[in-house]
Amino acid sequence: MIRCADLNDVDAITAIEKRVFRHPWSKNQIVQELEQENGKKVFAEFEEKMISYIMISYIMIRVVNNEAQILNIAVDLPYQHRGYGKKLLQYTLSELGTETDVFLEVRESNLPAIKLYSEFNFEEIGVREHYYSDGEDAIIMHKKQ
Ligand SMILES: CC(C)(COP(=O)(O)OP(=O)(O)OC[C@H]1O[C@@H](n2cnc3c(N)ncnc32)[C@H](O)[C@@H]1OP(=O)(O)O)[C@@H](O)C(=O)NCCC(=O)NCCS
Fold it and tell me: What is the pLDDT along the chain (145 residues), one digit of tens a residue?
């Protein structure tokens, strides 16, 4: 099940963020993302386990007019490479519609993510040198219409 995330989901997102990234967003940054209504969206994917739902993955995007930026996407560690990321990205792109231009930045070493984006027709359009705090370059990708 995929739905928009809200403030009740902060702890689940923060926990996945910490497990998945070397430089995780802080809880405050995630709260800010969820609180802002103008153009910011967070979708989260859940699976039913026993009697409740657990969060599997989430994606954060910012939309201004016809332009969207994917800020972050993460699938929790035990569920990676099992199709969840693909499903969430597919859902997000169809929510954005074909009129929206979609951009993102990704670490040049993050081959699984680059492969995923390429499968959805994203192509490299540039590089931001030393974009990340540890000095790594970011690849800028744009989804071909
Ligand atoms: C990148 C990420 C979102 C992909 O989600 P996922 O659920 O693991 O990926 P899926 O199972 O949906 O696979 C989709 C495609 O991604 C690529 N992929 C995913 N994991 C991969 C891996 N370990 N190695 C190589 N390619 C991989 C493949 O192209 C795969 O397609 P295929 O199964 O046909 O080969 C997820 O692995 C993740 O959260 N990674 C850590 C956080 C991160 O790097 N986020 C991106 C920040 S820009």
Answer: 999 999 999 999 999 999 999 899 999 999 999 998 778 889 999 998 888 899 999 999 999 989 999 999 999 999 999 999 999 999 999 999 999 999 999 999 999 999 999 999 999 999 999 999 899 999 999 997 7
Q: Judge whether 105 counts as a catalytic residue.
A: yes
For 16, other C-beta atoms within 10 Å of its C-beta total 21
According to CATH, the superfamily of the domain at 2-102 is Gcn5-related N-acetyltransferase (GNAT) (3.40.630.30)
Cα–Cα distance for residue pair 84/90, rounded to 1 Å: 10
- Residue 73 Cβ < 6 Å to ligand 1: yes
Distance 43 CA to ligand 1 centre (A): 17
Provide the residue ranges of all domains of the chain, joining segments of one domain with +: 2-102
SS3 (DSSP) at 120: coil
Residue matched to tokens 């569920």: 79
Of the residues 17, 33, 58, 117, only one is catalytic, namely: 117
To the query of whether residue 117 is one of the catalytic residues in this protein, the response is yes
